[in-house]
Write a structure and sequence with these properties.
With 117 residues, the chain is mainly α. It starts with a helix and ends in an 8-residue tail after the last helix. It is elongated. It has one domain. The chain contains four helices and no strands.
Length: 117
């Protein structure tokens, strides 16, 4: 089957513990963290500066912790060939994208739920 061949190619290692799948997940999730996440990170910074915990703070903490964990796991996999890399790059990107979808949906159909003055 073609799916099995593709899976074998993605599981092939570039470095010691790094597969092509991990590499592609890193490449595709990084722009999401930078461009989509920057809106949430700046709003979370403003909320923390005003000593308030908002949904932006929660999303930023969850997304950044998954992304940083994945980067540390991949780097550790490069240093230790016996380490099984556990990356969750897709989780960090999906958290940002789902919150962006929620925010867009609420702002278009239910502007009163966002308390926009």
């Amino acid at each position: 089957m073609e799916i099995d061949k593709t899976k074998e190619k993605l599981e092939a290692h570039i470095f010691y513990g790094i597969s092509w799948a991990s590499f592609f997940l890193f490449i595709f999730s990084t722009p999401i963290q930078i461009f989509v996440g920057s809106k949430f990170y700046s709003a979370a910074y403003q909320a923390i500066k005003h000593k308030v915990a908002t949904m932006d703070v929660l999303i930023s903490i969850g997304s950044l912790s998954a992304y940083i964990f994945s980067i540390i796991s991949v780097l550790y996999g490069i240093m230790d060939p016996d380490y099984h890399v556990t990356e969750v790059f897709e989780t960090s990107g999906m958290v940002d994208l789902f919150y962006l979808l929620y925010f867009t949906f609420c702002s278009h159909f239910f502007p009163f739920c966002l308390n926009i003055s």
